[in-house]
Amino acid sequence: MRTLPEVRALHDLPLLDLVYRAQSVHREHFGDNKVQLCSLLSVKTGGCPEDCAYCPQAARYQTGVAAEPLMETSAVLEAAGKAREAGATRFCMGAAWREVKDGPQFDRVLEMVRGVKSLGLEACCTLGMLSPDQARRLREAGCDAYNHNLDTSREKYGDIITTRDYDDRLRTLRNVREAGITVCSGGIIGMGESVDDRCSMLLTLAAQEPQPESVPINMLVRVEGTPLFSAPPVSTIEMVRMIAVARILMPRAMVRLSAGREQLSEEAQLLCMMAGANSVFFGEKLLTTGNPAYAQDLALFAQAGIEPLQPRP
Ligand code: SAM
Ligand code: DTB
Ligand code: SF4
Question: Which of 111, 145, 206, 241 has its CA 20 to 30 A from that of 100?
Fold first, then answer.
């Protein structure tokens, strides 16, 4: 599937046909009832110079998120240890930076990555733009994955973010790939984009060679003070369609049901899993907003016979 009309036709199939196709593709490549649990920690919160219209951490919006300095490594490793005890196998560290700058702060992030790896967790970072050399240093420290979202289509991008462009995003993804780090890249629905914008973003992701190993699909968390606070909400079914199309276009990727789970009923989350989602953020906080508590998720998985992925030996 290579053209936008083809992807759009898939997206618009009757829902049950679409979910059936996505579930068939999913079973062919995964054939199990496993879900990957990834824990997220904001290691450097707020005060970001970028203008991403959805983001509570952009300094220019009054959202009540206080800017904090980069966390100490010991505190990060304590959080990582707790996440592992709760059952997470991947630990993702997020920083509200436009880009990584060489120096003591980046050195500290490298130390965090080494520490997370020594706990037996997969290490993932999301730190903004990266140069080829910085990507290489992250890989050397043991970083397994780098999250850098395209967020929306190339056509829509300028309405959401003006302080960088789509090619900057694609360049960082290339630097990550070339350093031998796996790519985690996806986007957000609910920012006033059209269905074609959503399909176009998925097409761009799927056209990457190789395709991203991980594709987070976020439903906009509307945070007061951000320009998108009053964006109209998207329906659950739109989320299911997005996940199903991502699964069909990227059969081997971990498709992550990411931000927005607090707005989805448990049944809706299970429908997303039927449509091919096989990973979630685990723990009661995303970066600055809420997420279901550990116990709530574990109870849901137990009820549905979904098993958390075990750490790799
Ligand atoms: N600053 C880095 C960057 O932008 O690449 C890393 C952190 S940034 C917060 C990571 C991702 O979180 C964004 O690309 C966006 O997809 C997602 N995100 C941020 N705010 C969100 C919101 N309110 N709702 C849903 N997703 C959001
Ligand atoms: C991704 O796609 N979603 C996560 C993770 N990658 C870094 C972030 C979601 C952030 C939601 C808003 C917040 O908590 O600040
Ligand atoms: Fe900064 Fe990332 Fe938020 Fe954009 S999404 S404002 S780059 S923290």
Answer: 206
Residue in the block written with tokens 């069909």: 248
Distance of CA 113 to the CA centre of its chain: 18
The set of catalytic residues is: 48, 52, 55, 92, 124, 184, 256
Pairwise CA distance, residues 50 & 59, whole Å: 8
Beta carbons of 124 and 143 less than 8 angstroms apart: yes
Going by the DSSP 8-state scheme, the letter that residue 261 receives in this structure is G
Q: Predicted confidence band at 1 (pLDDT cuts at 50, 70, 90)?
A: low
* Cβ 127 under 6 angstroms from ligand 3: no
Cα distance between residue 117 and residue 122, in whole Å: 6
Q: Is the CB of 61 under 6 A from ligand 1?
A: no
DSSP 35: E
Residue 115 · residue 73 · CB < 8 Å: yes
Domain boundaries, the chain: 36-301
- 3-class secondary structure, 173: helix
Q: Can you name the CATH fold of 36-301?
A: TIM Barrel (3.20.20)
Q: What is the pLDDT of residues 226-257, one digit of tens each?
A: 999 999 999 999 999 999 999 999 999 999 99
DSSP 8-state code for residue 179: T
26-41 tens-digit pLDDT: 999 997 789 999 999 9
Torsion-angle region of residue 209: left (phi > 0), alpha (psi -120 to 50) or beta?
beta
Are 46 and 57 within 8 A, CB to CB?
Answer: yes
What pTM was estimated for this model as a whole?
0.96
Nearest in space to 245 (alpha carbons), one of 189, 301, 192, 297 = 189
